[in-house]
Amino acid sequence: MLSTFKIFIYTTPIPFSSSTPPFSLFHTSLVNSPFITQNPNEANLFFIPVSPDVSTRSLGRLVKDLRTNHPYWDRTLGADHFFLSNAGIEFSSDRNLLELKKNSIQITVFPTNSGNFVPHKDISLPPFNPSPFALPHAPVNNTTPFLGYLEWDGETESSLVNELNDDQDFVVESEPLDDLGRLQNSKFCVYIYGGDVTWMAEAMSLGCVPAVIMDRPIQDLPLMDILRWSEMAVFVGTRGGAGELKKVLVDISKDRYERMRGFAVTASQHLVWNSSPQPYDAFHMVVYQLWLRRHTIRYGRREMV
User: Fold this and answer.
1) Boundaries of each Exostosin GT47 domain copy (predicted)?
2) CATH architecture of 146-271
3) What is the pTM of this model?
4) C-beta of residue 30 within 8 angstroms of C-beta of residue 291
């Protein structure tokens, strides 16, 4: 992959900028990587380097310009192109936006907006922790006095959070003073889907198994083509509240828990962003997902309106 996979970056009138760390890290790493080619005829994929928060109107005009000024878009109706997006693209009657939505690879940040993520082609970037710990290896045979740990913003009203806060088997912190110790002393790290997940990689590296609270099936987990999330995380619905969550976690056997913990520790290295990319880190795993999509699917023109 490293020697043969090539990406061509268009020159666009809209300069790239983003204050979202995963986007800026991915963009900087990509433009300075050996995957870039200046010859579009040897490219496997084409990158449209627009800011992730650019308006849909501007995106539509840009795709129209690419179609008019370059021969590459119409070859696959955009299926071998990719772009970054904060909120995703909603369906539109504009042909250019429709092709971008249905065909092109959208890269966004986990978690994404419901309905704006197409699982068979889109990619979600692993979250970035602005204050990562200096991580040791996960302790072996660690005795964990807490069943679960939840980091909460301290403001959002949640009956689930209130119930967990009243249960001595769970630790709920809004301004953690000792994240590392709390994580090491918890079997499961509880995430409310749509909430803060920036600490996910660090928690997993310490052997804290993710327990994700969700109100719908999750289709945008980071690196879904690579990581076996079902074998290293627990997914629990919201209806049963804290009681259902606790029952599910307590019922997990010791053997199953140890397997999940081992998978989580191993997988954590693939979720880490580095200012200078390292083998098998988040940047290289995202590029690998792009490589998997190099054989494109073209939608017929009759589907366009």
Assistant:
1) 3-237
2) 3-Layer(aba) Sandwich (3.40)
3) 0.90
4) no
